[in-house]
Amino acid sequence: METKKDIGSAIKNQLESLHAAPSDKVWKQLESDxxxxxxxxxxxxxxxxxxxxxxxxxxxxxxxxxxxSSTPDSFPVENKISSSNKNSSSEVQDExxxxxxxxxxxxxxxxxxxxxxxxxxQAKGVLNSTDSKQDKEDRNSIAKESNLIAKEPxxxxxxxxxxxxxxxxxxxxxxEFEKEEQKSVINSHAVEKMLIDKDTLSSKITDLDKxxxxxxxxxxxxxxxxxxxxxxxxxxxxxVSGIVNFYDNFKNGSLxxxxxxGNQVDRKVHLNYxxxxxxxxxxxxxxxxxxxxxxxxxxxxxxDSTAIDFENLEYVRYTTEVSEINSFVxxxxxxxxxxxxxxxxxxxxxxYSFYGEEVDFGVIGGLQSRILLTDNIILDSDTRQLKxxxxxxxxxxxxxxxxxxxxxxxxxxxxxxxxxxxxYYHLKPYETDRINSPSEFRFTSSLEYKF
Amino acid sequence: xxxxxxxxxxxxxxIKAQKELYDTYKDGLFVLCLKYSRNREEAEDNLQDSxxxxxxxxxKYKGKGSFEGWMKxxxxxxxxxxxxxxxxxxxxxxxxxxxxxxxEKSLISAIPLQEILxxxxxxxTRYKMxxxxxxxxxxTHKEVAQMxxxxxxxxxxxxxxxxxxxxxxxxxxxxxxxxxxYGN
Lengths: 451, 184
Hints:
The complex is a heterodimer. Chain A is built from 14 helices and twelve strands. By secondary structure, chain A is α+β, with helices and mostly antiparallel strands. In chain A, helix 5 (88-107) packs across helix 8 (133-145), helix 5 (88-107) packs antiparallel against helix 12 (198-207) and helix 6 packs across helix 7. The longest helix of chain A is centred in the first third of the chain and has 25 residues, at 45-69. Residues 72-92, 104-132, 142-186 and 222-230 of chain A have low confidence and may be disordered. Chain B has nine helices and one strand. The longest helix of chain B has 32 residues, at 152-183. Chains A and B meet through strand 1, helix 1, helix 2 and helix 14 of A and helix 2, helix 3, helix 4, strand 1 and helix 5 of B.
């Protein structure tokens, strides 16, 4: 019987019957790590709430401006002008009626004025009463005072013949005028405003001589002047943009492994693209929403294959077999690690214009949601590449804030060219707190088309 | 839950399934970790890291081959990478490495398992890796050389040195043990 045995085989046989169990703390730690990994790609709740909150505030502010810009403080001449193509002569007549009434209001005796102010119907009745000699005189006098050029400013009024409406009592409002009133927007605010400013009234009456087309053209040129009569143009415009981004995510640490903190990192500058829809709330404020596709591409140079455990990099979620990685690393002298990722961004921006002529200057503030579309980590030797996985620390969804200087150059009536240098700050884009330089600079140029 | 279902649930990140998988295989994999480590603490760290890799890369397991074998491979790879950077493997010892190192059966049978394990754990890292891979886990010298980035000659040499050290260590324990018995 053999009494001796190779020590290797002997030890193997003996240890096959070895039983041992790890302590409970192993599972506890493992469970904790697994939970962290699970949370790793989801944005913290507070950021969601913050993002939603700020978007809501943005919408509220936008809505407020929109509401304010559509209150009847402004004279609604633009509506009439814009619709003048449909029935220009009747619209001009409406305007005449309104102005005639205002002229009366300026010059009538106090009794008549009170009645006019309180009752528009009554005002029209007075205006059209051929029996009121005093009124006619007053109207003529105000016309002279105001240097009215209108040939027959009260033509429509005098054309009204009460004899044709025998059935109507003296106080009844003429049927023709009721129809006219439905077409005409008589604005009591405007009446009051014009009572205060005779010059404005004069200019309005002067406008009667001009064709609707002339009026429209004149008002278009006035639209940038907030003190003039505002003209509502189509508030919508759209733009396509090219975006160049300069980023420095590695400034305070590597996004792959802390062992690479000191390595040289090269970042590619990409030309990215975006689309945006603009809504002019008023002459100063514009609300913009859009979509941008932003790429990042950074390479960590000369990773030491003898000192770095490539199968166990700190911020990598592996999708490749360990044996493949080992084989790649063993057959490569120098290895670079390339990390590229792409975000779809949905920005919501407010643009404020503080100087607007042919070249307009302003500022932009905004927030954007960011959705991670692609995320790759690639080992790169001189001759080969191997995708090893994706980042385990970059959140799939994020929020960022940005501030831009903005200038807009008018190229033609419809086209504008925008230039916007911007600073972006991404709110906690990574799970790890070790890296805290999530800012970037972008230069955006866009071609804007006004509808 | 059968293994197939556990794996399926683990792929979905189900923590209960992960616990069940851990409970099923933790002891066997822990013994493997013990052989490749210097002590219990290191083995526990290795086990924890290995299970982390298992859970995060379980999606890649397509059901081909033994699942236990796949997990063992992960543990061994983890051990290799942990020790790889601290050792210079390319140490060739000019000895007759073909010579067998034998031990008496009665001697090794008398030594408690914990002592045998301790002898293995106390081997210099480079010898321990080769000894474990070649003797315990049945890799060839060619495979060991490839895994550890060394030559086959170095692998054979390191194995030989490992056996010499183990024999000395076990004999020393036996002598000390006998002396203790006589002393009593």
